Amino acid sequence: MAEKRGVVKVFDSLSDPAPDVFAARLRGMAPAAALEELQTIHGIGPFSAELILLRGAGEPDHLARNEPRLRRAIALAYGLGGEPSEDELVEISDRWRPYRTWVTLLLRAYLEDETHEIRRGRPAAR
To answer: Can you say whether the dihedral through the CA atoms of 41, 44, 48, 49 is positive or negative?
Structure first.
């Protein structure tokens, strides 16, 4: 049998067999603790842990600091001369509470609409 790869290893390493149970447990934890637990799973780093927390566990108010395009999106949306520093990122995103997850998602969509950086290199949808 071929060796298991990628996401299959991640799913197999979850401590609860039911994804709903695992998501509920993550929702019941402080975000920092949930991120820490997620990163104990082989193959899950800071960026993937945030995505799981935001989308899989449904955390509505988490600032995805590891989202690689967030700072560019903020700079574009707010007309900044460059990407915001960590302090600027926190100051700006505090205004979005309690919906930082959703504002981050909307900013990413806005960045893509403006730059098409994700679509570049991919065949156009028909």
So the answer is: positive
The whole model's pTM is what? 0.63
CB 48 within 8 A of CB 54: no
Residue 26 structure tokens: 């993550």
Q: What is the largest CA-CA distance in the chain?
A: 54
Cβ contact 13:41 at 8 Å: yes
The per-residue pLDDT for 124 is 46
Q: Which two tokens stand for residue 99?
A: 């919906």
Q: What's the DSSP call for residue 53? A: I
Q: How far apart are CA 55 and CA 101, in angstroms?
A: 9
**Lowest-pLDDT range of 38-42, 80-84, 107-111:** 38-42
44-77: per-residue pLDDT in tens? 888 888 888 877 777 788 888 888 899 999 999 9
Whether the Cβ atoms of residue 76 and residue 114 lie closer than 8 Å to each other: yes
Q: How far apart are CA 37 and CA 96, in angstroms?
A: 26
Q: Residues 6 or more apart from 96 whose CB is under 8 A from it?
A: 103
